[in-house]
Specification:
It is a single chain. The two termini are 27 Å apart. Helix 6 crosses helix 7. The chain contains 10 helices and 13 strands. With 267 residues, it is α/β, with parallel strands linked by helices.
Length: 267
């Protein structure tokens, strides 16, 4: 047991991988500090494995020794399934209605135990294979499992429906919760602020949520100067930026950093 204590270095690495970006965060778990956090742009037209290799060459701290490594697959090839309707033998069937899947795809799921739901998804297997060669073993999950879990946690004892919009450069997620119940999760690709507004207002309309009344909270890569935020603010009365105070206090980060890296910092 003493040997285990002396070999432990209290370092944790979290990697969030998407087709157009990789972000990573190095944690000092003993002193509760984030020692490094970076985002690296990827091209969706180049092989993911080649770009990961380049990222590792340019950032040698990715190859340090870590006690814990978490890999987050950031894609929309996922769907949330209530535990009562879940059967592990039919993972592909849950995804076939909302995304294009192939027989050769690998399917897996994250259990969101506190809320009796599972997140079924297709991970980036080329990324996993690349990282196995570097790290040997690591934990991996879908990034939206963390997003939904933490937003459900934040909704405790709030009886009104809350709409969360998690924004990235090319896509955004809408999560609707009410007192720790997940009412809706969806992901949309967008190119213009008008696209963003259309999908957001369309979702509110489908759920019969009045833009004059409903609370909409924005997080991710967004601030009040963002064109998407400025346009949506004209049509949604109670739109504001989400303030992740727990993350700010835990990791001593600014409001904007905590919003942008909400998933990574919660990993």
């Amino acid at each position: 047991m003493n040997e285990a204590i002396t070999t432990k270095n209290y370092k944790k690495l979290s990697l969030q991988i998407a087709v157009n970006e990789m972000s990573f965060c190095c944690f000092d778990t003993l002193n509760q500090k984030i020692t490094d956090c970076k985002s690296i742009a990827f091209s969706s037209h180049k092989p993911l494995e080649d770009q990961l290799w380049k990222a590792f060459v340019n950032h040698p701290d990715l190859m340090y020794d870590y006690d814990e490594i978490v890999v987050l697959h950031d894609n929309s090839l996922n769907t949330f399934v209530p535990k009562a309707l879940f059967d592990e033998d039919f993972l592909a069937s849950y995804l076939q209605y909302n995304t294009k899947v192939f027989e050769t795809d690998f399917f897996t799921f994250d259990t969101i135990g506190n809320y009796d739901i599972n997140n079924v998804y297709v991970p980036f297997m080329d990324a996993n294979n690349f990282l196995i060669d570097r790290y040997g073993t690591f934990e991996y999950k879908n990034s939206h499992s963390i997003l939904v879990t933490k937003l459900l946690d934040a909704s405790k004892n709030i009886d009104e429906k809350q709409v969360y919009v998690h924004v990235k450069d090319t896509h955004f997620e809408i999560v609707v919760v009410r007192n720790q119940k997940l009412l809706l999760f969806n992901s949309f690709e967008y190119k213009t602020p008008e696209d963003f507004l259309y999908y957001l207002l369309f979702t509110l309309e489908q759920l019969q949520l009045n833009p004059e009344v409903v609370t909409v909270l924005a997080l991710g890569k967004i601030n009040t100067h963002n064109p998407c935020y400025k346009l949506a603010y004209k049509y949604i009365r109670n739109l504001s930026l989400f303030e992740p105070l727990v993350i700010q206090e835990k990791w001593n980060k600014s409001n904007e950093e905590a919003r942008e890296h909400f998933i990574l910092f919660n990993s």
